[in-house]
Amino acid sequence: MTRGSLARVVIDTRGAVFVEQLIAFLPVIFFFLASWQLMELCAGDLIVKRAASAAARAAVVVLPDDPMFYGGAPVNSFAGARKRDIELAVAMILAVSPHFSDDFSVTLSSAGGNQPLTATVRAPFHCFAGWVSLVCGGASRTLQASARHVYQGAAFDYALKGAAPGPVNGGGSW
């Protein structure tokens, strides 16, 4: 390479606009993806809150219901068919987003009697771009929400006349 051709390469500005475009484009696209992920995470938080509300509402209906509809599972027990029905209510809400899978958990707590029932839902939120995730903090993040509803239960016996007495509402915790 001669001295004259080297000088022409050094002062040549034809690629400067392309390099400047790359320098400006990368932060913009990164900010766009981070903003998108923040919106997805906020929507996921709202979905988990709605799922917790659905779990609490399902629990106040399902737990005191007639054992005949739940394979003989005792009243006020968070197990068996009663638990499956409450988890189904949660799964139906979480299914609206592709970021949630079926590996969520539902817990119920109550002080007993006619005290409010609290349902807590924990669900892993799977982020769409874990490699660029400043917002999500990795490939997934666990979201949690709780909801409270008044639990009055059933104050009557479900057993038929002449049958052995069945369970009655005595409050309880799960």
Q: Would you write up a description of this structure?
A:
This protein is of the alpha+beta class. The chain has one domain. It contains three helices and three strands, in the order αααβββ. The chain has a three-stranded antiparallel beta sheet. Helix 2 packs antiparallel against helix 3. Mean pLDDT is about 80; it is low at about 165-174.
Secondary-structure topology with pairs:
Blueprint: H1 3-11, H2 16-62, H3 80-94, E1 105-110, E2 116-126, E3 140-150
Summarize the structure.
41% of the residues lie in helices and 16% in strands.
Distance separating the two termini: 83 Å
Rg on CA atoms, Å: 28 Å
Count of folded domains: 1
**Main sheet attributes: strand count, strand direction, barrel closure:** 3 strands, antiparallel
Low-confidence stretches: 167-173
Sheet with most strands: strand arrangement: 1-2-3
Percent of residues in β-strands? 15-25%
**Total number of beta strands:** 3
Q: What integer is the average pLDDT?
A: 82
Q: Label the overall shape.
A: rod-shaped
Query: Which structural class matches the secondary elements?
Result: alpha+beta
Fraction in helix: 40-55%
Order of SSEs: HHHEEE
User: What is the number of helices?
Assistant: 3
